[in-house]
Amino acid sequence: MNSLELEIEGMHCGGCVRRVTGVLAAVPGLEVKDVKVGAACLTLDHARATPEAVIHVLKSAGYTARLAGRPEGSHVGR
After folding, report:
1. Residue pair 65/9 in contact by the 8 Å Cβ criterion
2. Concatenated DSSP letters for 49-62?
3. Residue 39 belongs to domain spanning
4. Mind listing the pLDDT tens digit for each residue in 5-53?
5. Are residues 65 and 59 in contact, defined by beta-carbon separation less than 8 angstroms?
6. What's 38's domain CATH number?
């Protein structure tokens, strides 16, 4: 299991935090450590899920995500 930090665009309130937390909690191989407006810290089992799959799930829920620390325009899964 490896840590994964995401920057998430489109989150504006506590409702967004709850929605993103629920969406992420449903991904097999993913443990949600912390979600706040604009970011998520996760633990990922690479044998069961990939960062790209996690980002795709968030995109399907209406959010844009990228690995933390990546420059603007380098979104994974786009």
Report:
1. yes
2. --HHHHHHHHHHTT
3. 2-67
4. 999 999 999 999 999 999 999 999 999 999 999 999 999 999 999 999 9
5. yes
6. 3.30.70.100
Domain annotation covers residue 36: yes
pLDDT at 12: 95
* C-beta of residue 43 within 8 angstroms of C-beta of residue 2: yes
Residue-level pLDDT at 1:
81
**Mean pLDDT over residues 68-76, rounded?**
61
**In this model, does residue 76 exceed pLDDT 80?**
no
Count CA within 13 A, CB hemisphere, residue 70: 14
Asked if residues 56 and 75 have their Cβ atoms less than 8 Å apart, the reply is no
Total domains, the chain: 1
Q: Which token pair is 13?
A: 């309130």
pTM of the model: 0.84
At a CB cut-off of 8 Å and minimum separation 6, what does 71 contact?
none
